[in-house]
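In the previous chapter we treated chains in isolation. Here, by contrast, the input contains two separate entities that must be folded as one system, with a combined length of 388 residues.
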Amino acid sequence: MRKTRIDAETKISFALIVGVLTSAALLAFGIAFSYLGRGNIALDGSYLLVLGIFTLFATPIIRVLMSIFMFYFEKNRLYTLITLIVFIDIIFALFVVPLLLHL
Amino acid sequence: MIQPLLLGVLLIIGVIAGFIGSLTGLGGAAVIMPVLSIGLGFPVEYAVGAALVSTIATSSGAASAYVKDKITNIRIGMSLEIGTTLGAIIGALLAAVVYSHNLSFLIFILFGVFLLISIYPTLRRIKGESKSKRIIVDKSTKIFQLKGSYYDVAAKRRFSYAGTRWWLGESIMFVAGILSGLLGIGSGVLKVLAMDSGMRLPVKVSTATSNFMIGVTAVTGSAIYWALGYIQPLLVAPIIIGVLIGAYLGSFIMEEESSYKIGIIFTVFILIIAIETMLRGFGIA
């Protein structure tokens, strides 16, 4: 059981690093395109910027998602449920609250 | 269209914020929000939005290191996240109410007060923990599986610990979540306090777990901020990049124990920002 734990936590670490670097790259290109592509529709930086921000948003969400699986495979029912609740909270904030706000 | 000079300034602000944030656990948002709103004159909603999003960057950047070291207690962090995420939703909605009713001076005052209160606990944390805690357990330890252990590289041995008073921790986390959503901060200070003093967890575990949790809290608030339009991509982008660079640089210094110097610089810095923020809140300056 200890070996599974080590792998899961290293995987989460790795996912975080990948997510953060991807986000940074998207944002950097987004800035470059926004500045250099002024008026040129083909070089639209704002799309990349938004993508970069969403990727950054994804890093904690993936953290939670991976933890659900980690607890599930550890057969930890309580924490699979708890982490699922946290995930639902985040989804609520992402999709339900904006809908409610725009009523 | 945003000028390259401004982009450069935002980048540098991000680097400083990320650097201080990774060293002290307080600072990412503490630097960004006042500098952007008071210093650069951006509308306060955008400043808070940028600060909150930068907090995600600091958290994910730091957590990538701590989680691998297995000091972070993901179980405890997740169980406490129920409180912080709920709090963040409420805090963000409160922020929406505040800004739409032109009450943003309240944000400044609250922000300044929070900074002032945070100085002492953060200084204590920088100095580190001198004695290890006796292991005490209670009902919540068993129910929520709050036992754990970690290997301390400096002390070269494994420490076991047990968390207690989960309900107290969760309640403080709820408040931390509200503050995070309302002020655009990470509330790392409160989180560490909740785990360290409230739940009797080791400082290192509390700090690592707090770093892990902050991003989750921040993204919950950010989701609502995004829907409200408080997050301006071109404003936020250079700050995020800067914060990541700053946090990366800061991780090198973490290893050495120049606590005293860091403590002094930090205190002066935060004091200045706290006073400026409160003055702005009260309509002066």
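The CA atoms of residues 69 and 151 of chain B lie 8 Å apart. The two ends of chain B are 29 Å apart (CA to CA). Compare these points with the single-chain example from earlier in the chapter.
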